[in-house]
Design brief:
By secondary structure, the chain is α/β, with parallel strands linked by helices. Helix content is 37%, strand content 10%. Strands 2-1-3-4 form a four-stranded parallel β-sheet, with helices on one face. Strand 1, helix 2 (33-43) and strand 2 (50-51) form a beta-alpha-beta unit. Helix 1 packs across helix 2 (33-43). The chain starts with a helix and ends with a helix.
Length: 129
């Protein structure tokens, strides 16, 4: 996943038509802390991604604040889990500028979705509960 984010950050910073000698650091926005952490590691000292959903916040009752909506409007790249995890972000992403890129990581080739439901049931059954 880290390599996918590295590629996306690089491709968001470099326009296809002209490759400048020094590219600007893209403005990156993430939906949840786990994706924010990965993006921050990839970006290193170059910049810091913005985080929409703070740790401990309820994703079911979440509403964008005006400052967060501005972050999205100014974003070059939005990294989010996808509508399965953060459905509240679907509509705001529809209003992104034409130059901005939104990437649903669950839908990106090379990512794998782990279903813990069956394993949890099997573990429960193994213990007789």
């Amino acid at each position: 996943m880290r390599y996918i984010i590295s590629f996306l950050l690089t491709s968001a910073a470099l326009p296809v038509a002209s490759l400048p000698a020094m590219a600007e650091v893209p403005r990156v926005v993430t939906d949840v802390p786990a994706i924010h952490s990965l993006a921050a590691q990839v970006m290193g000292d170059l910049g810091a991604p913005a985080l929409l959903l703070d740790r401990g916040a309820d994703p079911h009752a979440f509403q964008l604040r005006p400052s967060q909506a501005r972050e999205l409007e100014a974003a070059d790249l939005v990294l989010w889990i996808g509508p399965e995890m953060t459905p509240w972000l679907t509509r705001p992403l529809e209003s992104l500028g034409s130059e901005a890129r939104a990437v649903a990581l669950l839908g990106t080739e090379g990512t794998h979705r782990q279903d813990f439901g069956a394993g949890a049931e099997a573990a429960k059954d193994d213990h007789g509960h």
